[in-house]
Amino acid sequence: MRDFIQSLPKAELHVHLEGTFEPEHIFAMAARNGIDLGYESPEAIVAAYDFYDLPSFLTFYYKAMHALQTEQDFYELTYAYFEKAKADNIVYVEPFFDPQGHTSRGVAFETIISGIHRAQADARTNLGIESNLIMCFLRDMSAESAMEHLLMSLPFKEWIIGVGLDSDEKDNPPLKFAEVFQRARAEGYKLTMHCDVNQKDILGHMWECLNEIQVDRIDHGVNSLEDPSLCEEIAKRGLGLTVCPVSNNFVVQTYTTDEIRKMLQLGMKATVNSDDPAYFRAYLTDNFVALAEHGEFTQAEITQLVKNAFEVSWLSEADIAEHLAAVNAAA
Ligand code: HPA
Ligand code: ZN
Q: Which pLDDT score is estimated for 247?
């Protein structure tokens, strides 16, 4: 099964670049930049990982970001992810980045995006991996801060395909950012938002995403299965759901295999993704293998999930058709 999964050309639509920061790189970059994170070795960083819910993960995730300072740091972070992606036979990525996690520490927006963009260009040339960047707003920060960052991004609009919403969802509903997302759409950005698993008010948040924000995709969205009319609406609109099984197992202690299977049965465009692979110790192929191991997913189901990711990607119809043909040839 691992060989079969590996052999399929794949797309990844839900991966936080800062969540691909491997302990060896955190350690080396912190040392290079003279930042003391309080760890004596990469092993000490791994030993400190203790994630059992979203906040416990986010605390560590934001702490490690302090090691990222220069354009070269953002380049190396991003390029290292693309090398992992290459090893997994990923051919297309729509990665997230969290500018507010960096500007809040005094790093310039241009520094962040220039390093990421240069790595995307090199990955295209050297590794044959295409990518389109998604800028996320931190929902536990203010709507004003999100709007400031949206405006900051406009000179780099050509380098960004869409905007997302991440960080702690509790008491930070989609509607808090209605104006920001409306402006983002007017600027030509695609829209997605995290609807994290088992969050407070999650069904209300999902309806806000659909009706008020009018998102083009939903990140996670597993709880939609609790509301048949929500499922129906998601299926009708052909909205993609970027589910992350291993991440879910860390934050809510289930790989959500039953939910993913159910989405496929209901004609919902579920996809499989890695979220924060360096922290959850599982890249994309590992996430599919987890489905096979914990949910007895068949090759046909895996193939459908892989195809869904290309179908709900923000590539052109022609590019999507080309990728689907390549999946069919490999499956
Ligand atoms: N959930 C919400 N916000 C995040 C995550 C996540 O898994 N990873 C990075 N930011
Ligand atoms: Zn995420």
A: 97
Tokens 């692979």 sit on residue: 277
Spatial distance between the Cα atoms of 149 and 81, rounded to a whole number of angstroms:
24
For helices 23-32 and 71-87, the axis angle rounded to 10 degrees is: 160
CATH of residue 142's domain is 3.20.20.140
Q: Which atom belonging to ligand 1 lies closest to the Cα atom of 61?
A: 9
In sequence order, what DSSP letters do the residues of 104-153 get, joined into one string? TTT--HHHHHHHHHHHHHHIIIII--EE-EEEEEETTS-HHHHHHHHHHH
Phi/psi of residue 8, each to 5°? -75, 135
Q: Which residue has the tokens 């465009």?
A: 269
Long-range contacts, stretch 196-202, CB < 8 angstroms, 24+ apart: 196/54, 196/169, 196/220, 196/251, 197/222, 197/223, 197/248, 197/251, 197/252, 197/256, 198/223, 198/252, 199/169, 199/170, 199/223, 200/169, 200/170, 200/171, 201/173, 202/169
Which protein residue's CA is at the shortest distance from atom 5 of ligand 1?
Answer: 167
Structure-block tokens of residue 16: 């936080």
CA distance 131 to 144: 29
Number of domains in the chain: 1
Neighbours of ion ligand 2 (CB under 5 A): 275
d(CA 302, CA 319): 21
Q: What's the CA gap between 28 and 25, in Å, rounded?
A: 5
pLDDT > 90: percent of the chain: 99
291 pLDDT band, cuts 50/70/90, is very high
What is the residue-averaged pLDDT of the chain? 98
**Separation CA 88–CA 79 (nearest Å):** 14
Mutational test site, ligand 1, from 56, 60, 61, 139, max ligand atoms within 8 Å of CB:
61
Q: Per the structure block, which two tokens stand in for 264?
A: 């496929």
Domain that holds residue 305: 2-330
Q: Is 76 in the pocket of ligand 1 (CB under 6 A)?
A: no
Separation between Cα atoms, residue 67 and residue 24, nearest integer Å: 12
What is the Å distance from ligand 1's center to 331 Cα? 31
